[in-house]
Design goal:
456 residues; homotetramer; 62% helix
């Protein structure tokens, strides 16, 4: 018989019971549920609603229950949810005293508390994983500071870059991910307990005290909103979507870079797998799986947005679906970040190959334009001149470096003898010294700044 | 050491191994995998690639493995995937002979086969669950054929309906769901095995024979397409999205109908739950959860569409994510359909209350318009006349039935004494005898047709 | 001939030209594009790349072009994009001088600047619209401070609430929406111009000066990241999704409240529409459309997340699709907020009807539990006692108020004569004085706080 | 004053009017709306509800209105929707007679008819565009039947393929797209008119006659379902999502193939664009934009699924949002298909380069395994042998073709002198003669079958 069954004539249908049960998912929250209950009972003592000695027994028993669930000594299967499971266990052990725990609260605010406690921890975990990921990117950048990579737009050669500069692009994406999670944290970090089912309570409770015990800087302002709200999960999932989108781009790049046509990098055997049919294969499965899991996290976001759409206030049982989306995404993001960092730590960079490919195409075209601009040719005019040179080279199967100075001057008399030095590969990269550019000092400045950020 | 590890120097990192493993999900496919292997080995015998006595031993052992997995006697955890797990087990038991099983196939085509076999069965299961759901709707319609329900548009009273007609609307939605699944089945029911990793094989195999053994009417036409394709899952998920959308609308209606302000229906205690705080509560949790799970199925569709977007041909490991989306959705849809049907079987209909509410508002307004139209007033004019009558009634706090014939005639001289009989509630419903309308004969025709459909 | 066509032999196919053109969408950005160009040319002067008198002519002409586009005097159709359209117009008017404008920038950073300028303004616009919306909610709360509404969970009566408390729930949701937009703004408000196509430039530019001119507090750190990044739009869309989700819930509530079965509110005729067929109808179309548009904004978010998934660095043309998602959503959110606020300003509240319905059900059940708890009965025991009372009342068709004190005491001897005063409707609402509860002082505190927030 | 305004006291707020108006979108449906009206009025004549001469005038005027809208001679802006706009225009011209048109129908069934007529045509259009696309793929396959392409899995070399076989993979995807659209068509092709607002009508109409006039094979079965249903659009959008997913994969492949590292293909200048900054660039913008537009179509699907989720029956104004999703997606899919086909028609294939790359890696590894299997080595053993050969070659920087027969035999004594002939590139492709494989005859069979399909 359920704890809430006083008014019911028929017992819940067994299929319905199984269908509505959330224990298979929310058992993950037992620790947070118990911490919340302990803070709650302490507050009830402070407010003289429950006696101190009763509270002590409740706390002791809750701690035992926590320990036993951890060691899998309590069978949770078949329970309605983690809140009921723990309260039932408490009442089984402590009788009437245990029956006092649920005073002035409801499962509606209790689950919100559990989820917020869980999320606070998970945001911190993910922030730390991002930090490690950033640290690895930074190390990779430093180790390969002057390796030259062909930079792409539209997957066509664009301009050469320092590999360090390229890889730091992901550092800044990750930095935004941490920023966003930090902002999300502020909205997660608000204490919901004590709003009852939706209306508050007439009992003289002290919600601020619970907040203090659980280290929340503030409490929610409106009881109806509190039990109806899942913004904190949706915002978190949106942050994860952006994070996974970034990882999917990194994986795409690394899959391309490790493809035989480029061979810029080699992923360690330890992070690839073979084929059951083709013995020569070495596949970047880890990268592909991370890229594929992006779909799962997007799906989680859209699933919870859908579930919450047009729900009337206040609590509705639909909201129970939040846990599936939340737990799945959190787990996959944590796994993806961890393995991605590990894989990056084991990456081999093939500098010669990168540099070789960086020399293909007309990597110096923009530098030639800038050369002309420096000598007073209007930019758009300079762009046309170099455009014609490209066409000429394509027809003659030549490269800029292979043209004679006469040929140069046939396109513009401005060209001088030194032009070819000006456009050698290394110089084309190093001289992009505008702020945020791929130039040498510019990248060094970036690395310095990145280091400072990680130190904080 | 992995079966494919011949060319590798380093062993797979343990985290990478766990990350890339799909066994926790695809173990669900063991039965289909083994059926596929048995058909495959039979074909290899027919094509003289494997000896008959070898095949017999392989088949016998595969059947034992099947039985043992079913009884959970084989520990699958830690394996890379279900294909490797079974092949390894076979080789462990049968040595060299077992090593012949994977001839002329790859995991790329094997997983496609397993999934298609699984999907065939699941589509049939879901079609059957829809059939039961339709049967229950039909029974409900027959049992309450003449109960009168206020029909809504925009959640405002529109015109009265027979409850049977209203509930049959869901019958036709479900019918489309079955139609769609049937069409999807045609595209699922195509045999993929024997295309190898992507190119086919030089061995003289007979794919049509495998198709025959596994009761597929045809085989896939192109090996590259075959291993790159997950259309069959995405189309299936799209079918499930529409199905869940329909269930979400039914649940929404039933939640409204069972809300205290309407009380048109009562959901059996067995399908509701109470509140941990408010002892008077009886909540339609089952309905809310079905409605909420719509989000999960939408999310699954978008997750797989995302994963497949812009994947280069042919197979990529990203595609492994399909199973999560597929299994989750299938399970939740099956559970939702089953419980929804059961709940409908236990629904109490409150005819008096429905009829009472159906009389509110100006339910006969459209009938008055039609009354005038029958007497030659142009429709748009008639609409205006009745519009003014509504406004008059609102101001005078009267109803159509309460107006005197004089008052009627003050709006149009066309009104005759009999008008009030014409617009009594029952008649307003019964006389909508246009095809597909809520009229009495029209509903009976619908019920007859629905019965014939279910008989097939 | 295109400005970039120097190296091309064939002209762009006319269908391809039309397909790749973005002018139909990005013409909306002309103003921001021109502001950006003016700041850019001023910087080029400061850095001695362009002469002051040339810059003056360019600025003057750009201002004229801005004015003429505003007055629709320049035909933009057929152009590739707004950047090219303006530059071409400039060159047409200023010749060689105009050809200098594009020095040290690319369309890749230019579009990022335009979008960020646009977004800064739009975030401010939407924040202001939310402020007005919050102001209206607050006014509505103050005007109806003591109106009593039945509070729902699961669309079943739960506990009575002050209408003001209920409507303030939306105030706090909106407050989170503003908070989130404010956080998003920080990441939008970063200056991207001057990173070139992807690598930076060798010309001695000063990006910080451009930032200063355009009032950006900082510049982007990495050129590759800068041109590859659309996080700022996706995060903005995620904020809008949550905002629309909130509006969809408000609309759902108001649709329910204005449905004939409840009639808690009346939406002004000015915000409803009629039926082409049923003359009595008055439909809450505005509310339904806002609710429906939630789908459009969710779709925009998923569309851009999809587009960006697994794009290799750096810029790819796929990213051009961002504008469709961005402009559509922004427009619909602005329209929805504006009309929603206006509609709320014209809402009529039906206090009597609300109060009548609030008395239905066993609204005081939780208060009875609290009554018992106050007198020392353990909560869970008290819950059971009241649960049995509810069942007794249902069987006897009685209400709490209708029971004799003897009947009360038959459930628990603790009940005393005063119990019925304790559970009158008004008192049940007023006494929920826990922080954030629906109690009188608690709501007043909320209103005070809300006012302070709006004043800032 | 609106045609439905009889009962209203206040006029619609101008902002609300603009907000609820759908004319900017649904004006696209004018032609279908008028065809529907003409069929409707003919039926009213047949059923003796309207006189023949009146109908003739109505039809004549409707035809004029159609012509004038086509020539943009009627100003539609400011109207509520296309139905009202046309009816008002008719009444303006024909007075009382025009007022008869809307007899026995409502906008709820009228819009369903318009959309179904539109969709029938659009499905046919898209089917034809797919046919052309398939025709182009087939031509490309025939023209390059024996060009050899490195086949990829995981973007790593897997096995060589005929280019024709690879490109035909897309033929079969497109074939499934047409199949699915054909199945969708069956459910679109059902006549909805005559169900009124939701209940049917008491007037003696003949819906089957309307169906016959408009060439629908059957009519909808239930009036409530008919006006609540948007399955036909959602199913259509799901078909388009799969289609765009296929195009996104083709574009991804072609972007890779045209990247400088591969240079397998060259996209005609006419379908590429340049850079405003980098004069050497030639970017596959058309391909990228198609790939990017996949997001837009996914977004449309999710937007309508969201909008329809949990809508109570029957019609709600939220459903008006369907048109935005429908029209946008249809337009973008048509444009994408058209330009993609054109681009393929102008593709240059670089056979030498493909073949050169196909020889890289250990393309013959699987053939070596099959060689051993043919000679009695169990597959898994053979796989290991060749795996070790690959590792040996990698260490010695050799290729299979470069090993001596002695070296071969050091891995297995089974190897014979002829092994190297067996594994030359051409033979490795040609001999995959299993059904659906890349073998020569197998591809010829495919081409033959594809031709037959297109002929139908």
């Amino acid at each position: 018989m359920s704890l809430w069954a006083g008014r019911f004539k028929e017992d819940t249908n067994s299929l319905a019971k199984e269908f509505t049960s959330s224990i298979s998912l929310d058992k993950k929250l037992y620790f947070y549920d118990i911490q919340g209950s302990i803070a709650h009972i302490k507050m009830l003592v402070k407010c003289k609603i429950v006696a101190e000695n009763e509270a002590e027994r409740i706390i002791k028993t809750l701690n035992s229950i926590n320990e036993e669930i951890k060691r899998r000594k309590i069978n949770l299967s078949g329970k309605e949810d983690i809140h009921m499971a723990i309260e039932e266990e408490l009442i089984k052990r402590e009788g009437k005293i245990g029956e006092k725990l649920h005073t002035a609260r409801s499962r509606n605010d209790q689950i919100a508390l559990d989820e917020r406690l869980y999320l606070r921890e998970k945001i911190e975990d993910i922030e730390n994983l991002i930090l490690e990921f950033q640290g690895t990117l930074l190390k990779l950048a430093e180790k390969n500071k002057t390796a030259i990579l062909p930079g792409y737009t539209h997957l066509q050669y664009a301009q050469p870059l320092f590999f360090s500069h390229y890889i730091l692009a992901y550092f800044w994406m990750a930095q935004r991910d941490r920023d966003r999670l930090g902002d999300c944290y502020k909205r997660v970090n608000v204490m919901p307990l004590g709003v009852g089912a939706l209306a508050g309570t007439s009992l003289p409770i002290d919600r601020d005290y619970v907040a203090k015990l659980l280290k929340f800087p503030r409490i929610t302002e409106n009881s109806v909103d509190t039990v109806s709200d899942r913004d904190y999960i949706i915002e978190f999932l949106a942050c994860l979507c952006l994070l996974m989108m970034h990882l999917s781009r990194l994986c795409e790049d690394l899959i391309l870079f490790s493809s035989p046509a480029l061979s810029f990098i080699e992923i360690s055997d330890a992070f690839t797998t073979g084929s059951s049919l083709m013995p020569q294969k070495k596949n970047p499965d880890v990268l592909e799986l991370i890229r594929g899991k992006t779909g799962r996290v997007y799906g989680a976001l859209i699933s919870l947005l859908t579930t919450m759409k047009a729900l009337p206030l206040s609590y509705n049982r639909d909201m129970q679906e939040d846990k599936f989306a939340l737990f799945q995404s959190t787990q996959e993001v944590e796994r993806s970040l961890r393995i991605c960092t590990l894989m990056l730590n084991n990456l081999r960079i093939n500098r010669e190959q990168m540099e070789k490919k960086a020399k293909e195409g007309f990597f110096a075209a923009t530098d030639l334009v800038e050369y002309l601009v420096e000598r007073g040719i209007p930019f758009r005019k300079a762009h046309q001149i170099v455009g014609k040179m490209v066409r000429y080279c394509l027809e003659k199967r030549k490269k800029f470096q292979g043209l004679t100075i006469k040929e140069y001057q046939s396109f513009s008399p401005i060209f001088e003898a030194g032009v070819k030095q000006r456009i050698n590969l290394k110089r084309c990269v190093e001289n992009k010294e505008s702020s945020g550019g791929t130039g040498k000092k510019s990248v060094e400045k970036q690395i310095k700044l990145a280091k400072e950020i990680l130190k904080k």
